[in-house]
Structure formats: C-alpha cells, structure tokens
Design a protein that fits this description.
Blueprint lengths: L1 H5 L5 H16 L8 H28 L25 H16 L5 H26 L3 H7 L27
Helix pairs in contact: 2-4, 2-5, 3-4
C-alpha cells in the first residue's frame, strides 16, 4: 500500500490548494460573479480534463517503465503521449483539477490558491528538470522541443509521433 501511495502523483501544492479553496469557501465565502450553472459546468469540464491528463501521463510513465514502477526513480525519459506536449503533464493535470474544483464550487478563492500553489511548486519542477538533465543527456534536446507546461511544441518537434528516449539502468 505504501508503494502504491508513493506512486500516486499528487503535487503537495495542489493538494494544499484544493483543501484551502474548499475550507476558505466554507469559512469565508467569496463567490465568483455569474451563473452558478456555468461555474459548475466549466469547473466540471476543467476538472475532468485534469483527471484525464494526469491519468494519461501516469499510464504513459508506467507503460514505458521496465521492472518495478517508482514515480520518484525514473528509468527512462518519457517523451511520448502527453510528455510530447508538456514536460510536466501531471502537474498540468493537477492544476486543471484544482482550478476545476474551485470553479465548480463558484469560489473566488481559487484566484488566490491556484497561482500560489503553482508558484510554490515551480522551484521543485526546476529541481526535477536539473535532475533529469543529469540523469538523461538527451533531456537538453527534449527541453528544446517540448514546452515546460503548456504551449505548442517547437519546430522540429516529434510530438505528433513522439519517440521514447533512452533508458538508464535501475539502481539496485
């Protein structure tokens, strides 16, 4: 069970942000202007897109992992599926989940919790990228081709038909 929980990719900033947006809305409600129905539909669609993105990214990582799957110890640099569109699709997915929950609840607090959570996570993302650069020499090319979070892949990108990159031996 511990291994399973370690491999559930929940960024701490987003987990705290979701709890905060729900708690703040309960304790000191500040609602978004506009139709409650629109908030719920847009929030639900945004949240579902986030779940789909996070699940797709996790499945792609698992699919390309040989041996035991460990989220924190990648054995290969994945550049296929959602990783051909974003270097950090799991973060993007969780951002959409956080934003979707806040919108669906009609909470204006999401305008505070969402950017704060993203900014809190960004230094960790930069550290992950430094580690990937050390572990996988081909990360430099991947970084040039694929946007960090959102955007269009650059010219010469193979994201339309991405290829898996090199594997590194698993530490014993």
């Amino acid at each position: 069970m511990t291994r399973f929980l370690r491999n559930v990719p929940v960024p701490p900033g987003q987990a705290v942000g979701v709890v905060l947006v729900l708690a703040l809305q309960r304790l000191a409600p500040v609602t978004l202007p506009g139709s409650v129905w629109v908030h719920r539909v847009v929030g639900a669609l945004t949240g579902m897109a986030g779940v789909a993105c996070a699940v797709w990214a996790t499945a792609e990582r698992r699919r390309l992992t040989e041996g035991d799957y460990d989220m924190e110890q990648p054995t290969s640099l994945v550049a296929t599926g959602p990783y051909g569109l974003s270097r950090h699709p799991m973060y993007v997915g969780w951002w959409c989940i956080h934003l979707g929950i806040g919108l669906a609840r009609g909470s204006a607090w999401v305008a505070v919790t969402f950017p704060a959570a993203v900014m809190a996570e960004h230094p960790g993302v930069l550290a992950e990228e430094r580690e990937l650069g050390r572990a996988f020499p081909e990360f430099a090319d991947y970084r040039r081709r694929v946007p960090r979070y959102l955007g269009l892949p650059t010219a010469g990108s193979t994201s339309a038909r991405p290829r898996p990159l090199a594997r590194r031996p698993r530490a014993s």
